[in-house]
Amino acid sequence: MNVQPLLQNQSPQTPAPSGLASLPADMRDALQTLGAAGRLPEHVAIIMDGNGRWAQRRGEARTVGHRAGADSVRAVTRLAREVGLKSLTLYAFSEQNWQRPRAEVDVLLGLLVEYLASEIEELKRSDIKLLAFGNLQRLPLSVRMVLETTLAATANHKTMKLGLCLSYGGREEIVQAMQRLAVRVAKGQLRPEQIDEAAIEAELWTAPLGGPLDLLIRTSGEQRLSNFLLWQSAYAELAFVQTPWPEFRELAFAAALCDYSHRDRRFGGLGNARDED
Ligand code: FPP
User: Where residue 267 falls among pLDDT bands split at 50, 70, 90?
Assistant: First the structure.
């Protein structure tokens, strides 16, 4: 049988919609209304948890979960940019993750290299500036090279900042900030009484984000911070969701953003409660 005419008549495969276009119309409208009203967060951070358990439940290797998780990174980043977030910070590899079996660490770092190499054009098209926070010198040279290339290629982008926490720990970040301040004091460049919140924030790895953290999401049911953005989360709204990271795509992210819009942020003051008196 000559299959050529059949193949020629086949319509080219249309890629599944992503970002805002993948959402039901009412959700899309809700996000756009909330964005216009300034009710969405500007800076969201995510603990992308549950890759391993998700894969194991399906009878697959944990690394299958990490690979699916990389697709969630793409989906969530695209939606974050489309709804107008200023910054998205992702906990991609913690300082403590080095304790995992070598094979799993290699897969995680390999996925990161793959992600950076495959996303660089998308980051350029979307005007997203990549930032990396953590003990980056611990990363293998192959990772540092592609990371440096992507950081440089996106350095002047303005629309959104995408922060990847790599070999990151919140306590380590604070310790190193304190050490740098102590050196400046020892050199006579800074007086101890000049060490205030702003001085500490300026020394944190995340200083280039330049704004407070509004919403911290952790997927997959656990309710702890696991050494993530300890200083920055002081007044962040926390969202612990059951969805495992590999299934946390546009709809789950949109739901978390809508939920945030109902929070009453008081920062120790009275917030909306004042109006009820
Ligand atoms: C937690 O799941 C997740 C990680 C340790 C790493 C997150 C990595 C990715 C999402 C993929 C690669 C990242 C990028 C930026 C492309 P877990 O393994 O601790 O899950 P578990 O709690 O079910 O064991």
Answer: confident
Q: Starting from the edge strand earliest in sequence, which strands make up the sheet with 43-47, in order?
A: 128-133, 160-168, 87-94, 43-47, 215-218, 237-240
**Residues having CB within 6 Å of any atom of ligand 1:** 48-53, 62, 66, 69-70, 73, 90, 92, 97, 108, 111-112, 115, 164, 245
Residue among 242, 246, 244 nearest 223 (CA):
242
Structure confidence by residue, pLDDT tens digits, 162-201 = 999 999 999 999 999 999 999 999 999 999 999 999 999 9
Longest dimension (CA), the chain: 85
What is the rounded distance in angstroms from the CA atom of residue 241 to the CA atom of residue 55?
18
**Using one digit for the tens of pLDDT, what is the confidence trace for 95-149?**
999 999 999 999 999 999 999 999 999 999 999 999 999 999 999 999 999 999 9
Residue written as tokens 């656990």? 222
**Residue 90 Cα: closest atom of ligand 1:** 15
106 is a catalytic site residue: no
Closest protein CA for atom 18 of ligand 1: 52
Which CATH superfamily, name and number, covers 40-168+213-260? Decaprenyl diphosphate synthase-like (3.40.1180.10)
Domain residue ranges of the chain, discontinuous segments joined by +:
40-168+213-260
Catalytic position from the list 29, 97, 106, 272: 97
Tokens of 214: 């509004």
